[in-house]
Every structure is written in C-alpha cells, then in structure tokens.
Amino acid sequence: MTELLGDWRLWAALGATFLAGVLRGYSGFGTAILLAPVYSVLWGPRVGVPVMLLLEFFVSMQLLPRAAREADRRLILPMGGAATLAVPLGAVILLTADPEALRRFIGGFVIVFGLLLVSGWRYHGTRPLGLNLAVGAASGLLKGATGMSGPPVILYLLAGPEAVARHRANLILYFGIISVVSILGPLWGGLLTQAVFWKLLLALPALLLGVQLGARLFHVVPVRFYKPFATAALLAAGAVALLA
C-alpha cells in the first residue's frame, strides 16, 4: 500500500479518474472512453480494464435510479440485452490478446471516436430493432475486450431528436445494464486481483467526487462549452495510449 501511494502512476490515474467522473456526471458517458487508454498505459490492460469496469459499475449504480425513470426503455433495453450477450466474447479477447497490441488499439480507437465527435458526424437513419441489436452487440464486444462500450452507442443515440436530458438518461441506463455483466469476464479469468482492488479503493472516491461535480455542472454549463473540453480530453488520452 505504501509503495502504491508513492508511485506517480497512481496520482496520474487519480487525476484522470476525477476528470472522467466530471465528464460522466455531466454527459452520462466518458468514464471508460477516457480511462481505458490512460489506465492501459499506466497499469496495462489486464489491470487497468478490470479497475475501470469496477469503477463503471459503482458510478452506474449511483446515477441509475433517476435515469431509469427518464430513459426510453423500449429503445435501450433491447440494446442492453444484445450487449450483455456479446460482452463474454469480448472478455475472451481481453484474456488472450497481446497487451501491447490491445493498448495501442484502445488508443487508436479513442482518437478515431474523438475525431468523429469533432466532425459532427452522426447516424441519421431510422432505429429498427435489428439495428438496435447490432449496435448493442458491437458495443458489448468492445466492452468486454477494452472496457469501452460507448463509441458506437453514443454516435448512434446522439443522432436522435430527443432532448439533451433524455439522451443523457438513455446513456446512463444503457451503461448501467452492461456494467453488471462486464465484470464477470475478469472475475472468471482471474484478473480481479489484490492489486486491482487496492487501485479501485483509491480511485473510487476521486470518481464519485467528479461525478457529483459533473452532475451539478450539467444544470449550469451550456453544452457548447462542454463539448470542446470533452473532445480535447479524449484525443489527448487516446494519443497517450497510442504513442506511449
């Protein structure tokens, strides 16, 4: 424990964790997308991803009760079900892939996602059940392998006509659904080690504090100020994982 507290990587992780909490509390997403590349660089994917999955579980449980009342359950529940079935396949990738290659994939994927957000591209078609299931399955596969389920779902859902508050509730409900099953893969693979739980214990307060701040900022900070900040954070995190 003393050695961990004296490690600069822990303090860098805590700063990133607080920032990710602010993003999550404000927008309903951002925890995994920001922390996956950072944790993968600092601790490696097989430690960083389990820590992040456990953090995601706790923060989802904090935000879920209110979001479940406000979200479009007819849209989100089928997507969440498909993602739940796909998460174990992604977990196999996490357990068997080369950690260095997986870290670089995470970094590159986050950069591509950040650039898509900057470009303003969104899916603008209809939302039939089959497409909902396909997006959920792709998201679940990513969740199990990298801890990031957000990119396909965010680009898909944000194109809809719903108000910002409804978008936020949909994302929180979706991430809450898959956060439970996502920790089963690392548990089955023996990745939930003592080192993972020590890092979780130290990172969780920083995340919860950031979530509380972000939730308060949601009611006072216009989206036009938030989006450039969030995009810059994602691009920086992805570049660190890709190039470190």
Total number of helices: 12
The general outline is globular
Biggest β-sheet strands, sense, barrel: none
Number of strand elements: 0
Give the domain tally.
1
Strand content: under 5%
* Poorly predicted tracts of residues: none
Order of helices and strands: HHHHHHHHHHHH
Average pLDDT: 84
Please give the share of residues in helix.
over 70%
Question: How would you characterize this protein structure?
Answer:
- There is one protein chain.
- The protein is an all-alpha fold.
- The protein has one domain.
- Helices cover 83% and strands 0% of the residues.
- The protein contains 12 helices and no strands.
- α3 packs parallel to α12 and α7 packs antiparallel against α8.
- The longest helix is centred in the N-terminal third of the chain and has 26 residues.
- The chain is globular and about 50 Å long.
What tags apply to this protein structure?
244 residues, single chain, mainly alpha, 12 helices
